[in-house]
Amino acid sequence: MHLSRVDLNLFVVFDTIYAEGGITRASQRLNLSQPAISHALGRLRQMFDDPLFTRHGHVMTPTPLARRMIEPIRQSLQQLELTLNKVDRFDPAGATKRFTIGIRDVLESVVLPNFMRGIARDAPHIDISIVRAERRELESELSAGTLDVAIDILLPLADEIRRRRVSAEGLAVVARRQHRHVRPGLDLDSYLAQEHIVVSARRRGQTAEDFELGRHNLGRRVRLRCQNYFAACHVVSETDLILTMPERYAGIINAQFKNQLLPFPLEVSVVDIYLYWHANADADPANAWLRQQLLAALQEGTAAARGSRPAPRT
């Protein structure tokens, strides 16, 4: 097979169908019609004399040949894109692009307001998709380009996943201002004597504060386990239940509920927050620009949240 006779766009279609798992989503991602994607797939099947993808329900599953082909094709496409990007400087004011960012909901309120203010001002044709990135899939999604970047705690990922520490998160205790037993200067005994709310998407298991208490062989009464910090803070404002949560997010949410914020009554290590991207995007001007915007937004969010943090324990 001679390269001069091959349409390289076919390999872009192949890579996208593989990543998206279907023709419909591939057509949306490439902004092409479904018949155009189907036609390109037909040409690929004829070229390699293999179905490449077979349908199982709503998902297109790659054949063994497609699985062997994907990595060399993907690496070649990424290298070609990097070469082209080195030639063309990224111009956010004129660029038309969609970035996909994996981020946990507790960081959205800290990052997005400042981040989107800058995007709206400097990059009017750039769109942003924020998704919840499952940690077990983070590495593969960054490698596949499904995610451009991700923001999360320190994770054990492969060497080709780059990271940069961008922030740190501590814990705060939230209680309503009229609480009968919780006042500034909350000590450990008073904290443990209260009834607590735990926020977790999981049905069971320890949270960060449970882990810290467990290290000291301490426990507490959990009266409510729910999935959402906003709902939990609303409950706090109406009851004598108390909540332990990330301190910056606590400052943002509780401004509207007028709850009091107090230091967590144990010396705990802050949780470092990292920005992740794939090594193939190191020299990509668009990805580098995106990382810089997120870093600036996180720094602004951290500075703004300092005024809402609970006073240090004495």
Automatic annotation (TrEMBL):
Lineage per the UniProt record: Bacteria, Pseudomonadati, Pseudomonadota, Alphaproteobacteria, Hyphomicrobiales
InterPro entries tied to this protein: LysR-type_TF (IPR050389), LysR_HTH_N (IPR000847), LysR_subst-bd (IPR005119), WH-like_DNA-bd_sf (IPR036388), WH_DNA-bd_sf (IPR036390), YidZ_PBP2 (IPR037402)
Residues covered by the HTH lysR-type domain: 6-63
Keywords annotated in UniProt: DNA-binding, Nodulation, Transcription, Transcription regulation
Protein name: LysR family transcriptional regulator
Family: Belongs to the LysR transcriptional regulatory family.
Keyword Transcription: yes
Pfam families: HTH_1, LysR_substrate
A GO molecular-function annotation: DNA binding
